[in-house]
Amino acid sequence: MSVKRIHIPRRIRRLLKPLGWLFGQMVRLRRWCYHKRIFRSWRAEVPAICVGNLAVGGTGKTPHVAYILSLLQSSHHPALLSRGYGRQSKGYVFADHVSENQLSASLIGDEPLLLHSLYPDIPLAVDGDRVEGIQKLCQDAPATDVVVLDDAYQHLSLKADLNMVLTEYSWPYFVDYPLPAGRLREFPSAVRDADMVVVTKTTEAPEQIRKEEWRQKLQLAPDQPLFFTSYQYQDPLPVTTPARNLSLEDIREVILVTGIARPQPLADYLGHHFTVAQHIKYPDHHRYSAAEMDALNAEVEDHPGRVVMTTEKDWMRMQEEILKKTVSSLPVFIIPISVQFLFEDEQLLFNQIIQKLC
After folding, report:
1. Which of 60, 170, 238, 321 counts the most CB atoms within 10 A of its CB?
2. What domains can you pick out in the chain, each with its CATH number?
3. pLDDT at 220
4. First-to-last CA distance in the chain?
5. DSSP H helical segments within 182-236, as ranges?
């Protein structure tokens, strides 16, 4: 087992640990109040599957939500409800009620927009109030027989029928601390409410993974299934006219542009296939400005032969109306990613989900 902690100076972490402990205790008390029915949870009329985590960002929720949707759409009528993190709109927004040319990351968030582009026939809504949101979503999409909740593990007012908790292979929750000393939203003991745990972005081969050791460190009960997944990067996909006029063999140098939580694995992958001349990093969910795209355009013009590569999520944010003219003139490629379950556990996962839905 090889895990790492993101470095925070020891002195700073020591100062922040008491605040993290206090924060963790407050969140633990809140969860306890729901267990004891001091606070009430509401259950939707249709089954709900929650894909969440204990940490703040970076565990790969969006590709796993996409995977769950792909599993369900062949046998059910799923819908998706998300908070729509990073959007500028307020309240409930149902994607099908918005014209295609008005649908944007600023309206529904980059991750929901990406999922909508991947599964346009699956009803999608965003709402910070998950209880109200799921009721409105089921009214707007009455054929829905299961709702996938994106990042709702801490939304205890809505009781999910299945809770899937994700944790990253290189930064699992058992080596982390509650905010602000670390990035945990609550203590690791909160995983007891999960129906299954998925270790994401696994970099080791299956035969090198000690599952029982992981189970112990993750504090899992015997009846909590444990899955491991890895990312599969696909070939770069051209998304603008200048890029479509190129073949991958024509690419000499790459400018990688990312606004995601941890872009280094993507940078490492591209480095094995191309010359990454520059990596422009922005914070997760960064809203690109016209000035930034103009600067990127100037960089490409100054270095003929360079192309821009970015993530699917970043591409969603680059399609804002104010950016379209500049971005469309750039040779932009996106790197699609997919999720692969290790140990051939896809069928086991599907069986677990169907069992909860029956």
Report:
1. 60
2. 10-76+145-232+340-357 (3.40.50), 235-335 (3.40.50)
3. 98
4. 36
5. 211-218
